[in-house]
Design goal:
Helix 1 crosses helix 3. This protein is an alpha+beta fold. The protein contains 4 helices and 9 strands. About 6% of the residues have low confidence. The protein starts with a helix and ends in a 25-residue tail after the last helix. Strand 5 and strand 6 form a beta hairpin.
Length: 229
């Protein structure tokens, strides 16, 4: 029993390690820039997705402070999302809408957040990148990541540079499900062939340890290797 418990713990730990490695790989290599016609800008490469109630609740919990109204305009929240194999990147930013009859210069320094959720088959790790434009300049802050990895690639006529975080914030139940998934694969690769061989030998009436044919007589122990029959 102790041996099986030890194997189970080791397999779960290895499954968690593989799970994190796969999530980091998806975060770095998946979804470069989506295809599509039109000129390249910071915003047009993203598909428009309205913030959900859960998104707004998450933003409020994370420290998103809505900007106060002005006599000419109000601030609203918008979002963009791109998805690919093992990665969902969702960006949130605030923008101005002028009140009826008002006009003026738009503020082009929004509060911007990118939330990366990575993992396969389920999203299991999350990281965030906050960009705040204020009087002190552009301030970047990466949350829930051990490091960021620079990524450069060509898209049409542009050289795109980006940074991808190595996320560490677990997303439940996805992290647990993925860990069990990879632990099962590791068990099948490590012990599956031996379990299948013992099962086949037992069905054929052979010694499960050495394969000696025990069907021609009643044996309490294998005469070849001494294992219990």
């Amino acid at each position: 029993m102790r041996r099986w418990l030890t194997r189970l713990v080791v397999l779960l730990l290895l499954g968690a390690i593989v799970n994190v490695a796969v999530a980091w790989g998806c975060g770095i290599f998946s979804v470069r820039v989506p295809g599509g016609a039109g000129r390249f800008t910071t915003w047009t490469i993203w598909e428009t997705v309205h913030p959900t109630r859960q998104d707004l609740q998450w933003l409020n919990r994370s420290g998103w402070q809505p900007r106060p109204e002005d006599e000419d305009f109000t601030w609203k929240a918008a979002s963009r999302e791109i998805s690919g194999f093992g990665l969902t990147r969702k960006g949130f930013f605030d923008y101005q809408t002028f009140k009826p009859g008002r006009s003026g210069r738009m503020n082009c320094s929004p509060l911007f957040v990118i939330r990366d959720r990575t993992g396969w088959p389920f999203r299991c790790l999350q990281a965030e990148k906050w960009l705040v434009n204020d009087s002190s300049g552009r301030q970047y802050q990466t949350r829930y990541a051990v490091a960021t990895v620079p990524v450069s690639y060509q898209w049409e006529a542009w050289l795109i540079t980006d940074t991808r975080p190595l996320a560490v914030l677990p997303i439940w139940p996805g992290f647990g499900i993925n860990t069990l998934f990879y632990a099962t694969i590791l068990w099948l690769l490590s012990f599956g062939p031996f379990t299948a061989r013992r099962f086949i030998r037992n069905k054929r009436g052979h010694c499960i340890k050495c394969g000696y044919d025990l069907g021609h007589a009643d044996h309490r122990a294998c005469p070849e290797c001494g294992a219990a029959a």
